[in-house]
Amino acid sequence: MRIDIAAVxxxxxxxxxxxxxxxxxxxxxxxxxxxxxxxxxxEVEDKRGGGMAAEADLLxxxxxxxxxxxxxDERGQQPTSPEFATRIAGYRDQARDICLVIGGxxxxxxxxxxxxxxxxxxxxxxxxxxxxxxxxxxxxxxAATILAGSPYHRV
Length: 155
Ligand SMILES: C[S@@+](CC[C@H](N)C(=O)[O-])C[C@H]1O[C@@H](n2cnc3c(N)ncnc32)[C@H](O)[C@@H]1O
Fold this sequence. Notes:
44% helix, S-adenosyl-L-methionine, 5-stranded parallel β-sheet, Ribosomal RNA large subunit methyltransferase H
């Protein structure tokens, strides 16, 4: 199994970058005994001002063809953390690769959203894409702790 986060924009250090690294390190440590691989981050950036269409083109080339496509979008489903964990475990059990996609400031092109196997929302409010990266890294770590039966997720 392979887990990628494909994101528009580059995190060049700073608070969000530190948090993403910390949660993904924790995910790697907790997930390893569960058969979950470390998360690979793929960043794409369009420097020519081509907007969502150009970003969609870059994302389409970066997303591994065989991966289940999980798109982060405020219009998506709102799973609980245990439901998210169960779904991640299901992909692992099917030996299915997954790619979680986060859009840029303008959002994700409809062509990417249309291809998604699952669209996940962190609520109907719009969050900055760098914070969504932090929140997604935390939810992956939380999912690993739920699957491991550790007390981090207390509800
Ligand atoms: C600043 S938002 C873009 C908002 C844009 N107006 C739109 O219509 O998508 C950047 C990215 O962060 C993610 N995002 C923002 N808010 C989100 C939420 N509530 N749930 C899930 N993902 C979110 C999405 O991947 C989005 O493409």
